[in-house]
Amino acid sequence: MMMDDDKDPAVEGQVDETPATDAAPETPETTTEATEAESTANDVILGVAEEAQSTAKVIRKEATKVEVALTEDVKEEGVEIEEEDQSGATGSAHDDFNWDMTNRSAASRYSADERAAMEKQYEDSMTNIAEAEIMSAKVSHIVDGDVILDLNYKSDGLLPLSEFRDQAELAVGDTVEVYVEQQEDEKGQLVLSRRKAKLLRAWDRIRDSYANGTVINGKVISKTKGGLIADCGGLETFLPGSQIDIKPIVDYDAYVGKTMEFKVVKINETIKNAVVSHKALIESDLAEQREAIIASLERGQVLEGIVKNITDFGAFLDLGGVDGLLYITDISWGRINHPSDVLELNQKVNVAVLDFDENKKRISLGLKQLMAHPWEVLDETITEGSEIEGKVVNIEDYGAFLEIQPGVEGLVHVSEVSWSNQPINAREYFTVGETKKAKVVTIDREDRKMSLSIKQLQNDPWDVIGEKYGVDSVHTGKVKNLTPYGVFVELGEGIGGMIHISDLSWTKRFGHPSEFTKVGDEIQVMVLEVDEENRKMSLGHKQLEENPWDTFESVFPEGSYHEATVLRKDDRGAIVQMPYGLEAYAPIKLMRKEDGTIADVDETLTVKVIEFDRDSKRLTVSHSRYVNDIRKEAKDQVYKERKEEQDNTRKVLKKTSASIERSTLGDLSAFEQLREQLSNTEGEEE
Fold first, then answer.
1. Which CATH class is domain 464-545?
2. I need a labelling partner for 160 at 20 to 30 A (CA). Which of 57, 81, 86, 246 fits?
3. Segments of 454-535 assigned E as strands
């Protein structure tokens, strides 16, 4: 043992080494208090078992008190033991103490079976709660914006009052459904959710409606693209515009804020989304009514309907619970552009049943069938040769239809528009809606057909064509049409002819007449030929001038050089502008310049005439030939100059040779004498 002065500071203040096993029995007050506390706890547990109606909160509180009392007793006992040790009491070491022994187990008055029975009664009195389930709870208190819920569990639930805003008046004692998120959180409290319980219940109702066709209620809360958003028990669903009512809805805003009944027509389990329909409820209500109406239908029966929808091809009528289709062709005997020209929405009209299909629930209706056919009441004074006035209602490539009166039409063929043989474009001559006068050519009341003519309202000008439009006569006409091969010119009412593209100019070649003139221009022409039998006339424009090709042969002979400007070109050749406005053709390979490139458009260069054809009025030129000629001429000039130089050299050599041959020996002796004289002179000077 250690002396008091040598105590270890680490164990100072703890129980002394005096044996605790001998000290514990010697504290009767502590044992008695612990025994009484244990007895009290057992009495409480026994009371709970006998009275199952006691709440779990009381049991928990009492048990807590017992545990606190026991803790305090043990603490006091430990203090007393520590005090005895400090006072110098002796005993065995504290390590010999039996720590497994408790006051409760030592003094328990109940057997294991009795305790097990009482624990079972206690647990049976509690509600079994599992996480992720919906439970019923009773409102026990409402305090400061919070709602305390009793689930008959060991602890109460607490939710904010804001989660119950869907209930107008929430009072103590009301039963509500909540979703158990956790049995115990970090603080040991029960975690609940009223919102999740509502959403799960709403989704269950939606699934049931989708599977079994049950009806659910919802409130329209907003408008969205293509429909509405409805709140069905806290879950937002989509109500398409086509599923709001059996008739088309234009104003969606009128439904916002309304409470309606729906059927679920589509669900998405993954994202918990649903599509609802109010129209399905209405249709189910009208199903029996439809069956009754269809069963009583007969062809030719007259019914009253309300126009509920208008489309391009007709109108849908509500016949009192069943729809019928009124095609646009059965609305009026006359032509109409759109059903809205005659009908309007919500209009009441009488219609005749034309046909119906009991299986497909289709009903075809007619409006014009309630009126007499216009051909049956057509004025008898309208006969062949009669002059009438009608409105253009339809235009085709072969002609136009004139409406004499609603339901009575006649055809004006393109051949009956003008006395001229020039082709007539019906779409350019006629305009829908305009009024035209015509003459009745044929009429068949049985087949309800009529042919009309506009040109027969005037005398045939071809009867006197020779008097005014003789050959070689000159006239001014108006260009009416252009084709790839010529120009159609109108000289008078019903009189016209064609200028062939080759007769437009003596000097220019056109790829299309549009390069020379355009529709609407006035042009001067000469009559070349008249065919009265076939009503054809050939015209010319270039014939107004003398043929310049008679003089071009002397101006542009083959081999001559001229300045030319490139007007246009393609892969095969180029058209160049020659003097006097004449156009010539040059093959593309003959337009290569000295540097090897091809001449560009608007470039001016010198060309050589390589072909002149007066009969076909064709002039062919080449720039390459001109370049070759220049090169050849340059070579010839160099050769000529060299030859002249060589000739001159020969003459000089010949002359020099001749002078050398004329030298004699006398000439040589004279030179020798002269040399000697010069030598003597030099000697004297020395």
1. mainly beta
2. 57
3. 474-483, 486-492, 495-500, 522-531
Mean pLDDT of the region 493-520? 84
Query: How far apart are the C-alpha atoms of 455 and 440, rounded to whole Å?
Result: 11
**pLDDT tens digits along 579-611:** 877 888 889 888 888 888 888 888 888 888 888
Residue 376 DSSP one-character state:
G
Q: Is pLDDT above 50 for 143?
A: yes
Predicted TM-score (pTM) above 0.70: no
Of 207, 305, 222, the C-alpha closest to 265 is 207
What CATH superfamily classification does 215-284 receive?
Answer: Nucleic acid-binding proteins (2.40.50.140)
Beta bridge partners of 364: 325, 355
Is the domain spanning 556-641 CATH 2.40.50.140? The answer is yes
Residue 282 pLDDT grade (very low, low, confident, very high; cuts 50, 70, 90): confident
Q: Which residue has the tokens 């199903």?
A: 287
Alpha-carbon distance of 176 to 201, in angstroms, equals: 12
Q: Which of 465, 459, 569 is nearest to 511 (CA)?
A: 569
DSSP string, 66-110: HHHHHHHHHHHHHHHHHHHHHTT---S-GGGS-TT--HHHHH--S
* Residue 62 binned pLDDT confidence (cut-offs 50, 70, 90): very low
- Please provide the CATH number assigned to the domain covering 386-457: 2.40.50.140
Answer for the pair 322, 384: CB distance below 8 angstroms, yes or no.
no
